[in-house]
């Protein structure tokens, strides 16, 4: 079964979803992501869903869950590149995903992550992702 | 019997085409005295002559009881064209149908002159002619109605598009000035337009201006919040502006919660807030002379 790659870029993890999601794939991604956040001591996770054009309520909820889990593990999460149709669907499904940070594209998402992890710009690596 | 009767009407029409056309025109002009601003006499003459020609040849070729046959196709098409154009010009349906119905009088006069001696044959012919012209008249009304409906549908679509523009106020700042009541169909259109524009312009801030929305009830608020959350999911922040004092009162009285969405009284305030968010400053310089 194929897996979604999780790439480590500096202090951050980059998850780019390029294929259509199904339930098992999203479950394995959740496992991998939480494991990787702990193993790599990541301070931020960027989930790029710009290629995702179909969502159902389960995948919508899992996106929210993954963001929350990342936060519980002491890292920040940003979902970027959501398509208009996907945004409309999620709202129509009644999932507001208020706990998920979003950005328009990977560039802006990275900027958001940097600002979150490093609010003053000079704190260095003593973020909350250590334990 | 039937065949001989059919040929009589066609024959009479052919033989007396000119005088029938003249009388018919006079009838129409009498009926349309108030409408001479919409159609000129010469146009009416051309139309009438063409119709009478088509009608005569159809009578000669086809059945006089069934206007759905192929012989009547040119007559139907012509009538459809006339009544469609009249619908657009602003005629009433009865005025349009009168065009066909007023042919009865000159036609009946001719029939009486030709068949005056034979009462039974005259009655038969009159009946055939009446049924035929009634069918054609009703057909014009039907087409008229359809043309009107098309006009209404097109206007509805135009209004929907007109009322939901998305404008770019600044680099990265979009505005959606909403005008009119927000129902679910319009919310969908607004949402689609806004989300598409966010992607196209890469904007991070969207200002939804509700100055032109007459009332905000719980349903409208729900629609607004839907739009705001969809934009937020795409990574754009929303500001709701243009809240009039009256609306502020209603919102609070209804217990509508806009949550953590920023709301401002005017579009100017919202733009100022947007500038702060994207780190822009506006400075005033000495005005140029």
Q: pLDDT average of chain A, as an integer?
A: 85
**How helical, in percent, are the residues of chain A?**
40-55%
CATH architecture of the largest domain in chain B: Orthogonal Bundle
- Biggest sheet details of chain A: 5 strands, mixed
Please identify which CATH superfamily of chain A we are dealing with. Answer: STAS domain
Structural class call of chain B reads alpha/beta
Low-confidence stretches of chain B: 1-5
By secondary-structure content and strand pairing, the structural class of chain A works out as: alpha/beta
Widest sheet, order of strands of chain A: 1-2-3-4-5
Helix content of chain B: 55-70%
Task: Report the β-strand fraction of chain B as a percent range.
Answer: 5-15%
Low-confidence stretches of chain A: 122-131
Shape call of chain A: globular
Cα end-to-end separation of chain B: 98 Å
CATH topology label of the largest domain in chain B = Globin-like
Describe this structure as you would to a colleague.
The complex is a heterodimer of chains A (131) and B (289). Chain A has four helices and five strands, in the order E-E-H-E-H-E-H-E-H. Chain A is of the alpha/beta class and 131 residues long. Chain A has a single domain, classed as STAS domain (Transcription Regulator spoIIAA). In chain A, a hairpin with a 2-residue loop joins strand 1 and strand 2. In chain A, helix 1 runs parallel beside helix 2. Chain B has 289 residues and is α/β, with parallel strands linked by helices. Chain B folds into two domains: 155 residues, Globin-like; 112 residues, STAS domain (Transcription Regulator spoIIAA, 2-Layer Sandwich). In chain B, 65% of the residues lie in helices and 9% in strands. Chain B is rod-shaped and about 95 Å long. The chains are: A alpha/beta (131), B alpha/beta (289). Chains A and B meet through helix 3 of A and helix 8 and helix 9 of B.
